[in-house]
Amino acid sequence: MLIEDDQFKAVYTRRVTEDDLADLRGISTTAHLFQAWVDKAYEVRLTVVGDRLFPAEVHAASDAAHTDWRSDYRSLTYRTGTAPPNVVEGVRRYMDRLDLRFAAFDFVVSPDGVWTYLEANPCGQWDWIEHATGLPIAQAIADELQGVSR
Known about the structure:
This protein has 150 residues and is α+β, with helices and mostly antiparallel strands. It has helices at residues 18-22, 63-67, 85-97, 127-133, 137-146; strands spanning 2-4, 7-9, 42-49, 52-60, 76-80, 102-109, 115-121. The termini are far apart.
């Protein structure tokens, strides 16, 4: 998010083209992240609260949302999902290593079912996923804060 010409603007992920690489003036003046494109069937927001994992599939129905789902919320549909054992193990190691009790992980799932890690946010948003899927994330957070095991 940024303010430009007195207007609030959002910057979404986009694919970089050869033409974009021809002139990189100004790139050193701002934060940026370049990642290889991974073909995807859908994405997963995996919210972790304590020992509980809440995977939610994010399916994009527009080209814009397929590149960055934040750019077209109206085209999205959600489903609860299941994380593969190797992902669960890696997420648990990540949480333990960083001594975290909450994080929102983002993954791309390829058409052949391979999960690719994108990022983990220890302050990630979760309320919209709960409302879209019915996953009991708020209750898990309350339980975690009160020391209740389920």
